[in-house]
Amino acid sequence: MIYFDSAATSFQKPETVCNAMETALREMSSPGRGGYPEAMQAAETLLSCRTELAELFHVPEPEQVVFTMNATHGLNIAIKSLIPYGGKVVISGYEHNAVTRPLAALAADIRVAGAPLFRPDLVTEAFEKAITPDVDAVICNHVSNVFGAVQPVEAVAAICREKGVPFIIDASQSAGVLPLDMTALGATFIAMPGHKGLYGPQGTGVLLCCEKAETSPLMEGGTGSVSIQQEMPEFLPDRLEAGTHNVPGIAGLLAGVRFVRGMGEDAICLHERKLAQMASEGLRELPGVSVCARRDLFDQTGVLSFVPQGLDSELVGNALADAGFAVRAGMHCAPLAHRTAGTIDSGTVRLSFSVFNNEEEVNHLLETLPEILKQLSN
Fold first, then answer.
1. Which of 204, 159, 207, 205 lies closest to 186, judged by CA?
2. pLDDT in tens, 70-111
3. Which of 24, 190, 236, 249 could pair covalently with 208 via S-S, beta carbons 3.0-4.6 A apart?
4. Angstrom distance (rounded) from CA 174 to CA 265
């Protein structure tokens, strides 16, 4: 199987990630539950992971790094900490259901700062018009999970700082690929998965919290701290981390973060973008294929969508799977993004690359796809 679905999960992991998880299973128990060596080693692993993440994303203190199950978990905490029932929120036109469904559950008054694909200037203008002082929060993903379009989060953050509105960033597709400086951005929360660009295992995620963030726990329970108290602790990260930690997962995430820091985000992004550019150029030569990208892939990462005209995108995705390619097709849990981009009726076939992909794999796809499209068209 040639794996081109890393925007969903980076299935191919560094060997160090697998080794770290096995070591944790064999040698660690739970942090904060005792002073014996196995518990202390688990606590040290969690602190090391928080510290590495804080350094990577320029978070002042490791305690502001909260472990979650995934980005969706973190986004729910952030959204429900800032937005009351019926509250006002501004979002981009490319948000995932991890944002829009919690807002729907809150019956939020949603303003969509919509703009065409790959026009960050117009995205900024739309946010400038939509953000007013009465808005409870602004939410924007750093990179679209459907189209790989890089959103102008720096410009949006500046608007939020000027107008005094809290800002939530969904870094699901950018963490480990693009630089993120929480201190410079002044974001209130940044949510990200551990299992995508950070090369950790599924079931891991991270929520970066600004120092003065007001946080509302989604769950209450044991934290190993101030146990006599019946309310959740006021201090981070304990306030948002009820129950037993996923120690093997966090150990794997630590190894993944170290892998990313060793390679460098710039090198990772350049490699993935090069493959996406190669795929984009090849796809444009195929009749009946519309590529959702600029020709130069400016303001885009290694995520690339295309539309097979006249064919069901999921049917094409299934045919590619039968031919040995793992891709994602359809709505990608982001119908708002498809409405904004004009692909809501067709959906798209998405290719998403990682450091473990190469040019030979892209060439194989470009050689195989024409015959698949021909067969499905007959």
1. 159
2. 999 999 999 999 999 999 999 999 999 999 999 999 999 999
3. 190
4. 10
